[in-house]
Design a protein that fits this description.
five-stranded mixed sheet; homohexamer; Tetrahydropterin Synthase, Chain A; 26% helix; 3 helices; 5 strands; alpha+beta
């Protein structure tokens, strides 16, 4: 039984600022620079969700990509697209919205809803040049 | 004397909302949808600046790209990167920050500073799938 | 009044073969090579639709991209995506489905439905390396 | 001795339909949607073949990429490019041509012919947004 | 009779330096910076050749892309790929190899060999962020 | 404590030739083909540096990307950009500059300077179609 990895890419646009509420504005500016601008900035995020599993012998699919697309749409996109990650996203409440933390929370949202196959990786591009990956690994 | 077009691409990240202050919030939402979210959203903008002219026989350059890069940096990037287009950008004051209007204002900022060659086009990608171009044409 | 060009990109997947029914199979093979394979082949087409016009002073839009997206969806995508261009697409009936002819027919489908702004260009990528553009020019 | 991974990307265009011959047309349509269109559709596939091994001290190469390119050309591209995956490809006979199954079969074709280095991964993009990876893992 | 533009993209890799032999090394360094390094540097060039014309009613082609590919291969690629633009390319002899001048010379090489259709544009990317276009326009 | 992978992409342009000084020119040509051209050729290299670690609870960062960017700039880019890899780069001295060997040396340069997080991978694209990855694995 062969193990195959399948990936679906989606896009969304959000506003955020990198900001630690336990720090002064000066310290935030010193550590985070323009990323902590109180008037916000934003990104076109590119999200890659990878599952792994055995292709079903009747369909040849590891997971129905239409179903995966709907899951990502309802659990993630509908909550973050054209939204402010600091103010409006329930699963980011109290969390500094770095790409690292955002990817971990996207994993935590999707993971309980993936049966039949296994969630393998969340890859999140903040810009064309910076991206993070989270595979559910804990130390 | 051959006419050649040269282009420099740059990236920046900004927050904005599409909002007509003469309208109610309801009308803004009806016309602009999620793009008018009062808590903002944002983009990784990709800007292409194209000049045209005759290559200088001594350098083979239409325009020194290092000089063009610095011009774009000082006149545009330093004012819009990690900023809020509605609140913080002097040359967007009072202007609805659609990609169309933003491209026109970028043209207006750069055009007076390009000598030796001619500004030919401002191409601005708001997302990978939507972009506008302004060539200084008036009707 | 400034003239601005706006573009929307969309994707679709179709099957086709390049085939002139007035020719023998041998002549089709000789002229079109593997592109005339009677068992078909296919592509991920990338379509760029460009309109031009004056940004509306109340919205800052040349044309509402949501509306343009719906127009492309109903007039083009719904008819060609996951379809056979030779057998199933009404507006390609009797036309050799080269990228050139396909772009012209997409123009002809969209053009009568674009009011307020002007259809400026249809750009159609058959592969990453080959594309055509049609601007409604006639000789 | 350092282990390095080297990858070669290639493109090809094929037609296919996702279809389980043990099912009725209705069930195929219900499960696979437009992907089971009896008149076919197609894709520009992007294939990434990754090998791993120790760089040869005399050449600095893990594997000669010219040789790898020829291997992929003769074993894969010549059989699938501008072909119908359901009807014309010997190594896909009797196999539902999902991206998952297709990647496994490409692995099976290449693997016996790679000596000196080790086949590590087959990554296959069906569209820009959907791709699979197979690393020869069995469960 | 509809006028259509068709484009073929190709890649090649070359070494060069930007250097005016009438100047001292100091002046070259001052004007061209690292681009004038006497030990050379190089690029993966991306070349887009665009022709325009009327699709032939018998083939639906403006120009056979196989034929265009061969023309670009024999007239350009075979002379510049894995070569030094300053030392080894006959049609660049005595010409400062800026992207501007290189594009003009590629036009001059191809133009006399394109019959049936018309050469419309040479677009040449030196890097992902810098490119030039030449359309045969003279002032 | 979640383990996250973060990546920064950078570009640079260099000249090189693939050449084994222990071999005759004929043997170099036979084995390496045009890649051994004595007059050099060059590439736009794309480098991806990936670190892994636990996001710092105070910043949400695995590693400050500004700091990583500066490290890559001072240790790699300043030494290889617009340079000749065979003649001018100290850390490539005596090493055949294949992409494999180049990636290993970039790892060796960066690895001692990454504290707080762990260097995980060096991915190096020589062209859009060929790339290598080194993860510090030894056999």
């Amino acid at each position: 039984m062969m193990k195959v990895y399948i990936t679906r890419k989606v896009h969304f646009n959000s506003a955020h600022r990198i900001y630690n509420p336990n720090w002064t504005d000066e310290k935030n500016l010193e550590v985070f620079g323009g990323c902590s601008n109180p008037n916000w900035h934003g990104h076109n995020y590119l999200l890659e969700v990878t599952l792994c599993g055995i292709p079903n012998p009747e369909t040849g699919y590891v997971y129905d990509l239409k179903k995966l697309k709907e899951l990502i749409e309802s659990l993630i996109i509908s909550k973050v697209d054209h939204k402010n990650l600091n103010l409006e996203v329930d699963f980011m409440k109290g969390i500094i919205p770095t790409t690292e933390n955002f990817a971990i929370q996207i994993w935590n949202q999707l993971q309980p809803h993936i049966q039949e196959a296994q969630l393998y990786s969340i890859k999140l591009y903040e810009t064309e040049r910076n991206f993070v990956e989270y595979k559910g690994e804990k130390l």
